[in-house]
Amino acid sequence: MDILFQLVFAAYLAATATALVFFWTLNQRLRTVSRGLLLVAGLLHTGYLVARAVVSGHTPIASSHEAVSFFAWALTWAFLIFRWRYRVKNFGAFVTPMITILMIVALFSPRQVVDLPPALQSWWLPAHASIALMANAMLALAFCGGIMFLLQEREIKRKRLGFFAERLPSLEALDNLNQHCLSIGFPLLTMGIITGSVWARQAWGAYWQWDPKETWSLITWLIYAAILHQRFTVGWRRRRAAIMAIVGFGAVLFTLWGVNFFLGGVHSYAG
Questions:
Q1: Model confidence pLDDT, tens digit, residues 207-223
Q2: Beta carbons within 10 angstroms of residue 261's beta carbon
Q3: Which of 79, 162, 233, 249 reaches 20 to 30 Å from 147, CA-CA?
């Protein structure tokens, strides 16, 4: 499996490098190559996750390596599906580096197969964890869109259209991207918390224990609930919405990684 993972990592690295070179040169041929490489990486990654599932006997999401790898896989396919339905100029130049960063973290995380404790040997594992990480993937897309918005806005405010102005979509298109990703990511995040609560009741006898990861999941949910509430009632849009998408994703990352390393708890990944 290590060789397969190395191939997956190499494919993502090639897709990212090609996307960045295209962003710099605007060579249309490179854009097509980058998309093809990302699709190949996504397919290879799917094969890698299936192989780990067969070897371990459970959904490959039980260790830090598996969780980050699964997150990268979810982000890849969320982007490919999004890109298939919507056209956002040079979106891949911002998403593929994030995927590669996740894969670098997975590369340097222990890759041994981890046995699940009895309490976690449930079909709720794939239901809860996969929904939660798909939610994170959509919120990661909103984060990338927020970064793009701030870069484009900065160029426009300078009244000197430079490097980013001709390479990034309009502010309106980026604001719509933010709304679309949050509108999908937030319901998935809600479903992830609900399925996690039901699973906790089955595994530990209580729907909620205020474990650090549960607490930070709730904090993250409240942040995104506030963003959507303000967006649809008060009219938060554009710059404010972009900044809050970035702040919200910071909470997502802390829930995924920070809790494991700094706060611990029953949800901390093995290994």
A1: 767 777 788 888 999 99
A2: 11
A3: 233
Q: In the prediction, which pLDDT does 203 show?
A: 65
Beta-ladder partners of 270: 63
Smallest CA-to-CA distance from 231 within 216, 243, 220 is with: 243
Task: Look up residue 200 and give its two tokens.
Answer: 């906790």
Q: At what angle do helices 2-25 and 64-85 cross, to 10 degrees?
A: 40
Provide the residue type at 74 as one letter. A
Phi, psi of 113 (to 5 degrees): -75, 130
Q: Dig out the tokens for 129 from the structure.
A: 């964890």
Residues 222-236 pLDDT 10s:
999 988 888 777 666
| 3-class SS letters over the chain | CHHHHHHHHHHHHHHHHHHHHHHHHCCHHHHHHHHHHHHHHHHHHHHHHHHHHHHHCCCCCCEHHHHHHHHHHHHHHHHHHHHHHCCCCCCHHHHHHHHHHHHHHHHCCCCCCCCCCHHHCCCHHHHHHHHHHHHHHHHHHHHHHHHHHHHHHHHHHCCCCCCCCCCCCCHHHHHHHHHHHHHHHHHHHHHHHHHHHHHHHHHHCCCCCCCHHHHHHHHHHHHHHHHHHHHHHHCCCHHHHHHHHHHHHHHHHHHHHHHHHHHCCCCCCEC
> Lowest-confidence range among 54-68, 111-125, 253-267?
253-267
* Residue in the block written with tokens 């793009």: 148
